[in-house]
């Protein structure tokens, strides 16, 4: 039985008959739809929907994209990503087209269906263990991004991903940013591995826990970095990334990504009470990565980023599935809060 969420004619952003590429809502909606297109590509493969029965093509063709290439996992042969090329008809050319991408590289989230669930859950676990960068799927993704950028240039390429796919896009974006290439990125419900402090209702308790966590993390980081700096002097990779500003879309009702809200807001609060230096050290480290470093397995925390345009969906959600779903991000009636955070 076909899920309504898979059918573009039933759940896609049909209101976007003309895309204004200067409009933030339009850009977000198109990026989310292209990510959904990857998900439905894999579902089409799993249930053998082909030709006129395939449900995936409308998710990109509606916006005048063509499927340039599928990205396939070498372990289970599932489709985890896609490279789309923008090919608008002449009748759709206007001034806003200059703001459009030439290519969008999109990555889907976890699919809990036979044919992909085992591999996807393994990768979800690798995010928790901060080892996603060691997986062959991410190697394939990063190489695909490098190839496209080398062909068409960084200003013509967007990254997009949801959940597991957002973590993949984040890793690819960070990898490119370290070489001075800053790609526009749309990260939907990207996982933030941390204690769920954001779910605490009492603001004083929440703030107190964050301060305590920052002091402990900064203390461990100072001790660890002091020992390692005795043997080598290196450039701070966190500061190097600060010029890259991805669009980070989170929902406070989604425990997988909600911690990004407190992560960024806490920086300003620490500055306000005069201990911003502690937070600047804590914000680029996690307790997990510091413990791994202490055990001889140095590990840069994937989910920590210096700068972002944080967009929070404040529209009430009925349950976790709605708060975590990709489909929320093309709704025309969203109540959102947006703030730019620059690491200095």
Automatic annotation (TrEMBL):
Superkingdom, taxonomy of origin: Eukaryota
An MF annotation (GO) of this entry: hydrolase activity
One Pfam family named in its UniProt record: Lipase_3
Record has Hydrolase as a keyword: yes
Single GO BP term: lipid metabolic process
Keyword Hydrolase (UniProt): yes
InterPro entries recorded: AB_hydrolase_fold (IPR029058), Fungal_lipase-type (IPR002921)
SUPFAM superfamilies assigned to the protein according to its UniProt record, in alphabetical order: alpha/beta-Hydrolases
Residue ranges of every copy of the Fungal lipase-type domain listed in the record: 140-182
Keywords: Hydrolase
PANTHER family xrefs: ALPHA/BETA-HYDROLASES SUPERFAMILY PROTEIN, ALPHA_BETA-HYDROLASES SUPERFAMILY PROTEIN
Protein name, per record: ALPHA/BETA-HYDROLASES SUPERFAMILY PROTEIN
């Amino acid at each position: 039985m076909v899920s309504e969420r898979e059918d573009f004619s039933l759940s896609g952003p049909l209101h976007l008959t003309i895309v204004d590429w200067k409009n933030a809502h339009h850009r977000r909606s198109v990026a989310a739809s292209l990510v959904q297109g990857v998900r439905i590509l894999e579902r089409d493969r799993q249930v053998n929907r082909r030709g006129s029965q395939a449900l995936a093509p409308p998710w990109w063709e509606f916006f005048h994209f063509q499927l340039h290439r599928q990205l396939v996992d070498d372990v289970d042969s599932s489709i985890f990503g896609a490279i789309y090329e923008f090919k608008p008809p002449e009748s759709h050319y206007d001034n806003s087209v200059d703001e459009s991408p030439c290519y969008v590289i999109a990555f889907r989230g976890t699919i809990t269906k036979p044919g992909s669930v085992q591999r996807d859950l393994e990768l979800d676990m690798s995010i928790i263990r901060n080892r996603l960068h060691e997986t062959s799927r991410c190697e394939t993704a990063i190489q695909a991004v490098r190839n496209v950028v080398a062909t068409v240039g960084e200003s013509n390429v967007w990254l997009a991903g949801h959940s597991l796919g957002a973590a993949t896009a984040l890793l690819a974006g960070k990898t490119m940013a370290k070489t001075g290439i800053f790609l526009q990125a749309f990260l939907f419900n990207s996982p933030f591995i941390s204690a769920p402090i954001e779910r605490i209702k009492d603001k004083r308790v929440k703030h107190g826990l964050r301060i305590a966590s920052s002091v402990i993390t900064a203390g461990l980081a100072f001790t660890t970095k002091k020992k390692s700096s005795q043997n080598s002097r290196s450039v701070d990779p966190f500061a190097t990334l600060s010029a890259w500003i991805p669009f980070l879309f989170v929902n406070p009702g989604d425990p997988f990504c909600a911690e990004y809200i407190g992560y960024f807001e806490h920086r300003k609060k620490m500055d306000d009470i005069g201990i911003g230096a502690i937070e600047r050290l804590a914000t680029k480290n996690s307790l997990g990565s510091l413990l791994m470093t202490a055990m001889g397995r140095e590990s840069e925390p994937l989910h920590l980023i210096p700068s972002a345009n944080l967009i929070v969906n404040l529209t009430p959600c009925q349950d976790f599935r709605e708060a975590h779903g990709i489909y929320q991000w093309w709704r025309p009636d969203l109540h959102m809060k947006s703030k730019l955070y620059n690491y200095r």
